[in-house]
Specification:
Strand 8 and strand 9 form a beta hairpin. The two termini are about 35 Å apart. Helix 3 crosses helix 7. The strands form three sheets. A five-stranded mixed beta sheet has the order 2-4-5-9-8, covered by helices on one side. The protein has a two-stranded antiparallel ribbon with strand order 1-3. Strands 6-7 form a two-stranded antiparallel ribbon. The chain has two domains: about 30 residues; about 200 residues, Muramoyl-pentapeptide Carboxypeptidase, domain 2 (2-Layer Sandwich), CATH 3.30.1380.10. The protein is an alpha+beta fold.
């Protein structure tokens, strides 16, 4: 009987606190931090089973050169809505002989914070030659390749490329993921993503590379994603369900 009285009393305290404006997890222990709530997220491979994962921030092959904070397993997570739209992209492209390869999807805020610490450390240039050879750390930040907030942390953004099902090889996109430079812009080399026209202005960038970028871009846009102006691999669901929430739970398999 005493147990039930204590539970009732505690419930009344919580209710009273909420009525008087108490909203923080510090004031009421079990008031859930929205940024730590993964209940509306899914494992992408549960929804898109044939997606290939190459989670760069779980490895050291990335612009930082180290495993990034918050990446506890090499898995990809997204909001349910974004994953459903990505499944539609996958089914669309499979008819043309392509499967998706994912480099990154949901990215916790703690990972973004790791990027910021890296950007402030001018002595850490272990991956400079591979990802930003012509830029200083300040230019990386000023160019918004690294920012204090990332759309990835809202859970409906994905970085990806395409793999040819016949050869098993990545399509030649004319540049690598997370290359910081104009070569990563979808319209690099004179191509116009809006009209799909290609007027070659850079001898080393070919019409085939532009076409491959547009295959990915067009499929993503057909199924509700919007592209980014300076990264051919980056897409965000137009109607993202959490436009104002920057999540911070770790990247690991959701049960």
């Amino acid at each position: 009987m005493k147990k039930y009285i204590n539970v009732l009393a505690l419930a009344l305290v919580v209710a009273g606190g909420l009525l008087t404006g108490c909203k923080s997890a510090q004031d009421v222990a079990w008031v859930k931090d929205p940024a730590m709530d993964s209940s509306q997220f899914v494992n992408i491979t549960d929804v898109v089973p044939d997606a290939i994962l190459e989670i760069r921030y779980y490895s050291t092959y990335n612009f930082v050169g180290a495993r990034i904070d918050g990446y506890e397993e090499p898995v990809a997570l997204m909001t349910r809505q974004a994953a459903d739209s990505l499944r539609a992209v996958s089914l669309d492209l499979k008819r043309h002989g392509y499967v998706l390869k994912i480099y990154d999807a949901y990215r916790p805020q703690r990972a973004v914070d790791h990027f910021l610490r890296w950007a402030l450390d001018e002595t850490d240039t272990v991956s400079k030659a591979y990802f930003y050879p012509r830029l200083t750390k300040k230019q990386v930040f000023d160019g918004e390749y690294v920012a204090e907030k990332s759309g990835h942390s809202r859970g409906s953004t994905v970085d990806l490329t395409l793999v040819d099902m016949k050869t098993g090889k990545d399509l030649d996109m004319g540049g690598t993921f997370d290359w910081f430079g104009i070569e990563s812009h979808p319209d690099y080399g004179g191509g116009n993503p809006e009209t799909l026209d290609f007027q070659q202005t850079v001898p080393t960038f070919t019409s085939e590379q532009f076409y491959n970028r547009m295959v990915l871009r067009s499929a993503m846009m057909r199924h509700g994603f919007k592209p980014l102006d300076n990264e051919w691999w980056h897409f965000t669901l137009k109607d993202e369900p959490f436009p104002g929430t920057y999540f911070n739970f770790p990247v690991r398999t959701l049960k």
